[in-house]
Amino acid sequence: MRRAWWTEEHEQFRSMVRRFLQAEVVPNFEEWRAAHRVPKEFFRQAAAAGITGISIPVEYGGGGEPSYSYRALLQEEVALAQVATGPLRCHMDIVLPYFLRFADEEQRRRWLPGIAAGELVTAIAMTEPGTGSDLAGISTVAERDGDVYRLKGSKTFITGGLVADLVVVVARTRRDPANRRDGLTLLVVEDGTPGFVRGGNLPKIGLEVQDTAELFFDDVQVPVANRLGEEHEAFSYLGQNLAQERLSIAAGSLAAAKAALAATVGYVRERRVFDRRVADFQNTKFELAAVATEVEAGEALIDRAIGALDAGELDPADAAKVKLFCTELQGRAVDRCLQMFGGYGYVTDYPIARLYADARVTRIYGGTSEVMKSIISKSIGL
């Protein structure tokens, strides 16, 4: 079914992204998998193609496109090309909105042109070893000392932490025992700042080219000029971007499910057992028909959420519904598709194996499925 927001501009963007992926990503993807990260040059290439800065205002070197639909389309094309682009989605969909919303004019002129050009890569450091989803429990501290903050603490599971030039760190600048959410501040730590140390690339069962790091801050002096927004107000800022963050994860999950379905349909048409194509068995038809129907339902939900986000109306509870449904759908779809490959589905040379491994984390990061259910239950009065 035709998507309601689809225009000729979307078709042109899709064609451009496909050409870019075939030229710059597909030939290099196995090398990236072996290195467990994408090279910094990739971000400059993506920027030159008009991808990285698409949502950045024109006056700062970007494309000035406010609709999230283009970024959802990018995720679809990446998945259908059977590749991955590491921390690019996090950079564009999760971190950049903080710069666009909370940076003052001096900060915008200092950072946005570099981000648009792919010369500055971003990451956000929220999670700590002992906090997980409990952002109010953040213990990394930043003490004001004249024109700087002295930052002390550590973060973990930071997507893009090894390649980022700018890391938005959530730190505690005030402690109120009566209000755990009070007193958090966003500070931008720049690469090369003394005391800022990156740990190794954490080994994972999936997301091979997405570097995930531990970050350490040993009395790092961060200029007050690098603070995003007001002091002590970060908890409310984090909540303002949660809807887009969770929609981004949901869109990626749906894209992966669509890619798994496409790869499996192609495989069962060619694979023969008992002198018949796997596609000719009734069980194959029924299983993949069910996956196709779920994918269509997920797409309708995603499209409705994109419209709401573009209109400024997507609230956290609705975003939680979209993430819960699409990430759970992804898990079911990829599992059913892998079964159609038989033993080959367990061999990492086949893209379905990577899709299977990558799928598991989407029900964890950005808020677990259990957290999503808690948010949804509160929204219906429970």
List the helices and strands and how they pair.
Layout: H1 8-25, H2 29-35, H3 40-48, H4 69-80, H5 88-102, H6 105-116, E1 122-125, E2 141-145, E3 148-159, E4 166-172, E5 184-190, E6 196-201, E7 212-223, E8 227-228, H7 234-270, E9 272-273, E10 276-277, H8 282-310, H9 316-340, H10 351-359, H11 369-379
Descriptive report:
Helix 8 (282-310) packs antiparallel against helix 9. The chain has eleven helices and ten strands. It is globular and about 75 Å long. The longest helix has 37 residues, at 234-270. Strand 9 and strand 10 form a beta hairpin. It has helices at residues 8-25, 29-35, 40-48, 69-80, 88-102, 105-116, 234-270, 282-310, 316-340, 351-359, 369-379; strands spanning 122-125, 141-145, 148-159, 166-172, 184-190, 196-201, 212-223, 227-228, 272-273, 276-277. With 382 residues, the chain is an alpha+beta fold. The model has no long low-confidence stretch (mean pLDDT 94). A four-stranded mixed β-sheet has the order 1-4-5-8, covered by helices on one side. A four-stranded antiparallel β-sheet has the order 2-3-7-6, with no helix packed on it. The two termini are 36 Å apart.
Question: Low-confidence stretches at least 5 residues in length (pLDDT < 50)?
Answer: none
With helices defined by DSSP (H or I, 4 residues minimum), what is the helix count?
A: 11
Strand order of the largest sheet: 1-4-5-8
SSE string:
HHHHHHEEEEEEEEHEEHHHH
Mean pLDDT: 94
| Number of strand elements | 10
Give the C-alpha Rg: 21 Å
Report the major sheet.
4 strands, mixed
- Range of strand content: 15-25%
Principal-axis shape equals globular
| Class per helix and strand makeup | alpha+beta
Distance between the termini: 36 Å
Considering DSSP H and I runs of 4 or more, what fraction of the residues is helical? 40-55%
